[in-house]
Every structure is written in C-alpha cells, then in structure tokens.
C-alpha cells in the first residue's frame, strides 16, 4: 500500500529506437531485454518492449519502441513519436548511408514529429572493426586501403560518429556491439538518464501524482 506523499510505482519513460532498416536496432533490443542475439534477420514493422531498470537509485520502467526504418513505413512510423522522452538514433558502422541518413533524413523527421526531444546517437555493429583491424594487420602497408579491406568500404570510425553526434545536437554518443554484448547496457542506461531529465509536452507530472494520498 503506497504511503501518503510517496509512491512505489517506478518512473515511466518512453524511448524510441530509430534508424535505417537492417542497421541492428532489433538485435540491440533483443540483447538488452531478452539476453539473446537473433541469428536470422527479420525486418520489424513495430514492436514494443517493457524493461525495468534502476538508474542512480531510481526505479525506472522503460517503454522501448522498435521502429521500421524502411521508407514504406514512414507514415506509420510517425505514430510512434507521441509522448517520447528520448530517441536512440542508430546507425551501423559498416553502412555510411545509415550515418548520412542520420543527418539528411532522421533528424528532419524527428524535428517534424518530435521537436526538442532528447537525442542519443548510437553506433551499432562495432565488433566489425575488430575484423577490419585483423585484415589491415595481415595486409601490406603499401597496398591501397581498398585492397587492404578486401574490397569493402572503410568502416565508420569513432571520431566520425562523434562528429555527427555534435552536428545533430545529440546529448550522448555511444558505441556498442549487440553480437558481442558490449556496451549494450551502457547505451540504454545513458538513454534512460537523458529520459529522466525530459518531459514531453502534455505529459503528466509524475511527482505531483506521487504526492497524492491513496486510500486503500
């Protein structure tokens, strides 16, 4: 039974995960909420996850919205922005298009539907850099970079991601690998911290709610 002036209910925060299709958003969510990495890619239309965590001693219930990055879902995706506290905007380090779209597509869409929301930029699939390092070490330094990478495009560096984060006004720039489960919890923890400082327009004041007496 809640006591007067207090509440046992966790703070509720909504985080929308945004970014190009196949950049790794659903894998990131699966590892964080369910503890496993999916081996087969299945495009997401929309899915909602609920996950409870503690942030700086506060109980927080996260409502995590997985969205479809494909263009054909643009109109449907706009329905997910209501009452959002934070957006985790994702790109894959092996897709320069996904990083370019952060600036040319996603930030504009956020401004249209969710202006002023807290923004966190997240680089995904960072374990691929380890493979790149191995390939570079085993190649002759005299070879062109394109040959050193076996014809693949150069992966996006930390510095490049950080530069884009500054340009788009992200509060945090985070890097992780869902496949190796590295940096996943940290990414959501930082996003949740940002969400705790946010109050979307029209959202209820939770402190005022919790201060009311409840008679049982």
TrEMBL record:
Q: Enumerate the InterPro entries for this protein.
A: P-loop_NTPase, Small_GTP-bd, Small_GTPase, Small_GTPase_Rho
Q: Which GO terms describe its biological process?
A: establishment or maintenance of actin cytoskeleton polarity; microtubule cytoskeleton organization; positive regulation of exocytosis; positive regulation of formin-nucleated actin cable assembly; regulation of septum digestion after cytokinesis; small GTPase-mediated signal transduction
Q: Which Gene3D superfamilies match?
A: P-loop containing nucleotide triphosphate hydrolases (3.40.50.300)
Q: Which domain of life is it from?
A: Eukaryota
GO CC terms, sorted: cell division site; cellular bud; cytosol; plasma membrane
The way it spans or sits in the membrane comes to: Lipid-anchor
The signal peptide annotation in the UniProt record is none
- SUPFAM superfamilies cross-referenced by the UniProt entry: P-loop containing nucleoside triphosphate hydrolases
What are the GO MF terms of this UniProt record?
A: GTP binding; GTPase activity
What's this protein's family per the entry?
Belongs to the small GTPase superfamily. Rho family.
Q: This chain belongs to which protein, by name?
A: GTP-binding protein RHO3
Where does this protein come from, organism-wise?
Answer: Nadsonia fulvescens var. elongata DSM 6958
Lineage of origin: Eukaryota, Fungi, Dikarya, Ascomycota, Saccharomycotina
């Amino acid at each position: 039974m809640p006591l007067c002036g207090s509440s046992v209910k966790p703070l509720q925060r909504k985080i929308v995960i945004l970014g190009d299709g196949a950049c790794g958003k659903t894998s990131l969510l699966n590892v964080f909420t369910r503890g496993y990495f999916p081996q087969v890619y299945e495009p997401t239309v929309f899915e909602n996850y609920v996950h409870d965590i503690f942030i700086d001693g506060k109980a927080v219930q996260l409502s995590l919205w997985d969205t479809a990055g494909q263009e054909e879902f643009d109109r449907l995706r706009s329905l997910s922005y209501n009452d959002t506290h934070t957006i985790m905007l994702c790109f894959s380090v092996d897709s320069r298009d996904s990083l370019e779209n952060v600036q040319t597509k996603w930030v504009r869409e956020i401004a249209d539907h969710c202006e002023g929301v807290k923004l966190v930029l997240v680089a995904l699939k960072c374990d691929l850099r380890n493979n790149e390092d191995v390939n570079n070490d085993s190649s002759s330094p005299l070879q062109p970079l394109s040959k050193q990478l076996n014809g693949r495009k150069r992966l996006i560096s930390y510095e490049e991601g950080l530069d884009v984060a500054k340009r788009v006004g992200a509060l945090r720039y985070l890097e992780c690998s869902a496949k190796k489960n590295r940096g996943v919890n940290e990414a959501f923890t930082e996003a949740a911290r940002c969400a705790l400082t946010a109050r979307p327009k029209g959202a209820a004041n939770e402190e005022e709610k919790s201060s009311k007496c409840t008679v049982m």
